[in-house]
Amino acid sequence: MLMKLWQGVVTHIFIQPTDKPAGGDKVRVVPIVFEIRSIEEETMLGSIWGCFYASVLRYWLKWFIRQVTGKCELQRVCAGCKPGAPRTTRAEYSLENSKSPVLRSAVDLEEEHLDQCLDLIVKEKRVVTQKDPTFKMHLKVCLLQITGYRHLFGSVEELRKDTFDSDDVKHEEMLLKLWDLLMPETKLESRVTKQWGDIGFQGDDPKTDFRGMGMLGLTNLVFFSEHYTEEARQVLSHANHPKLGYSYAIVGINLTEMAYSLLKTGALKPHFYNTVSGRPDLRHFHLLYCYLAYQFDRFWVDEEPASIMEFNHYREKFHENIKIQLLDPAVALVLK
Q1: Residue 278 and residue 147 in contact, taking contact as beta carbons nearer than 8 Å
Q2: Residue 269 belongs to what domain range?
Q3: 38, 77, 116, 199: which has the fewest C-beta neighbours closer than 10 Å?
Q4: Are residues 229 and 296 in the same domain?
């Protein structure tokens, strides 16, 4: 504790030079600290307050508001918040922090149990549906989005763990399809060839480049090339620029990892809650990748890096820009 106090004092002391006396230079140390509070202490106070609010104050605040309005928190959220991220995020928080096991379990259930769960919530919260006829409909959409996001991560993780296998005909067909979509006028001389470098793979056999993201990386590359063919070829042309070029496929796999990490941390919830009115699926994740691939290319060209050696720096800068966008409750990362 003394060490933290000392550190706080040192960081808040000004050292000012005095007039030069005959004896030489001297300095005058002027302490200006009246209150010392370390970052750790502020964080601890915030944690204590958060714990107190969640465990005690929030319960009584909800109870008081219900007595005044005659509506439970979920009813107020569904009626008072805009559809999409503003409503679903608030509903998710309410469900996760509820003292009721019925409500807490609602955030992780299968779609076939959804209607039954809604009935249990109505009963648990004593909601009179005749007085609030839209409540179940609005809450159902929220639950579809909340549970869908969790199931989406499971699907993405499964595809990521699916290793590219040269002996799998479907895997090989998908890889060759990527070449045909991006290079329709150039025939691939053989399965293992230096030509793969023309679309941004590192070696003669692309299979080694998929080790990190598995089939998720290849599926994203093919989806972008198939559904946004003109844009994908434009990005490839920029990637092959003699000065501003980069490895198209390798960067694409890297952006797949970015999308995956954002999904895993929950950062993509506002985006999916705003753009998908029901349960998001793999197609919606692939569409997000298309947005990232196209926008990163624009970002790279606008920034004009000195060389590809600066890729990590600009990759992180782009990553931070995306995370800032995702803080907007109205965010929608859609490639139009």
Answers
A1: no
A2: 169-325
A3: 116
A4: yes
Q: Is residue 17 part of a domain?
A: no
Tell me: the pLDDT tens digits for 30-73?
443 434 445 455 566 666 655 655 555 666 676 666 666 778 99
Tokens of 54: 């969640």
3-class DSSP assignment, residue 46: helix
Give, in degrees to the nearest 5, the angle at Cα 260 between 256 and 264. 175
Structure tokens at 163: 């290793």
Is the separation of the CB atoms in 263 and 152 below 8 Å? yes
Cα–Cα–Cα angle for 190, 191, 193, rounded to 5 degrees: 70
Distance CA 336, CA 333 (A): 10
Is residue 82 domain-shared with residue 189, that is, in the same domain? no
**% residues pLDDT > 90 (the chain):** 74
64: in domain: yes
Q: What is the per-residue DSSP string for 58-80?
A: HHHHHHHHHHHHS--HHHHHHHH
| Cα–Cα dist 120/322, whole Å | 38
Asked whether 287 and 334 are in contact (CB, 8 A), the reply is yes
Beta strands in the chain (DSSP E): 13-17, 27-31
End-to-end Cα, the chain, rounded Å: 55
pTM of this structure? 0.81
Beta-ladder partners of 30 = 14
